[in-house]
Amino acid sequence: MSPRARRIVAPWVAGILLFALWEAGCRLFDVPEFILPAPSKSVEALIQYWPGIWKNASHTMYTTVVGFLIAVAFGLALGVAVGTSALLYAALNPILVGFNSIPKVAIVPVLILWFGIGTVPAIITAFLISFFPIVVNVATGIATIEPELKDVLRSLGARKLDILLKIGLPRSMPYFFASLKVAITLAFVGSVISETVASNEGIGYLMLSASSSFRVPLVFAGLLVVAALGIGMYAVAALLERRFTHWATRGMDSGFATGG
Amino acid sequence: MFAHGSAMIEISQVSLAYGEEATGGVLALRDATLDVSEGEFAAIVGPSGCGKSTLLKLVSGLRPPSAGRVSVAGAPVTGPLKIVGMAFQNPILLPWRTTLQNLLLPLEVAPNHRRRFRREKQAYIDKAQALLARVGLSDAGARYPWELSGGMQQRVSLCRALIHEPEILLLDEPFAALDAFTREELWETMQLLWLDRKFTVLLVTHDLTEAAYLADTVHVVSSRPGRIVHSRAIDLPRPRPLDIRFTQEFVDIVHELRAHIGRAREGGK
Fold this sequence. Notes:
Chain A is mainly alpha-helical. Chain A contains 10 helices and no strands. Chain A is globular and about 75 Å long. Chain B is of the alpha/beta class and 269 residues long. In chain B, strands 6-7-8-3-9-10 form a 6-stranded mixed β-sheet, sandwiched between helices. A 4-stranded antiparallel β-sheet of chain B has the order 2-1-4-5, with helices on one face. In chain B, helix 2 (99-109) packs parallel to helix 5 and helix 7 packs across helix 8. The two termini of chain B are 28 Å apart. The interface between A and B is medium-sized, with 23 and 29 residues.
């Protein structure tokens, strides 16, 4: 098998091994279903309750993606502002770090107080939990422009906006796309947390109500769905990253055959 | 002393301190005085950390002097000039742009080019290709900088500094990071480009052979705070072949410069 084929197969083998271990463990030690259901039971529940799971999962997808998109827009804008101005960076950095340290689950009740139970708190939680890495990465990309490069452009009569558009933004793109991979999975965490605390829709709500009626296989079916959605969104972000910033890896991941 | 046109760069009694002046920050330059004629190739040599690079920042207008006067083309420098090109030890090309796109960058931002650039893009591309061909890189335009060798990258960096036809070229040790053979090739390329258009050059280097080979005049700067302690005209005919370095005349010049550097290192204070 070629090294390339091996790299494609490896994650599937690892995944199947994990499930096989889990299944074997459950059967071997006869673990009761309401404590840890075997993957086969979880998949069974997944098929049995599919229409309900699908409806709730798509709602979670919706709140996650909307929250994530707001985070991208806000994160880019704030990242550019903080990255271009050292003063703004000094002013806002402690606030940002402080805010990021607050567990977002503590904010959900406040959001519910303001916006009521449902979609809006989930979107806002997804946004709040995922914008920080985008800000930090975009700001880093812009703030670390080589001073000589700035000198070259300034001595050409370039305006600050030119330097940002021609150098700062393209330069920060690898950082930006790397942060998207982190942010999209965080956005899922945000949405599901909010739905778990208080909602009447979404995969978090489904898992909460399933566990309160001891339908543990259904809870695990929900977990599997969340994990699958996360992997899917991560893959989309990674694809975008490769598409737009192939230069950052010096073309290396297009196959090692050309390296040398 | 110089058989050139009127003074292009005039630096008179210039001092520059970094940091808080009140608390006596580091003095990079003290009473530096230097003239470069129009079309002259001037080199500045000196011990490391003597404020050579600072001089370039002053000339380009990227930094104001603490005291003294810097004039370019007869007018005092008050802000970043728009008639200079710059190249550094690090080629700092943009990895997301191809070589050709890197060359076009100055034309996209320079105020006197940017509007015409959009209308006459093809003409500018032809011009960039011609410049690449002049430095022996005619087939590198579509490649990315990270696909080029260090010497090729530095050639591109020189081309980028010249594409907008600046009147002054400021060079901050642009050949210092190259291996010896590549460096010699680049010296030839540099001489070729300069003979083509005879712009004014200010080259900062710590390589005496490089300075003597390329320059019309070599200025020796003392250790910090930097002052011009010696100026030497190099009257060797052009174009200079690389072999000229092994003639007695050339060797004597380098020896003489070396002696001044020795004194400059001891007695800067």
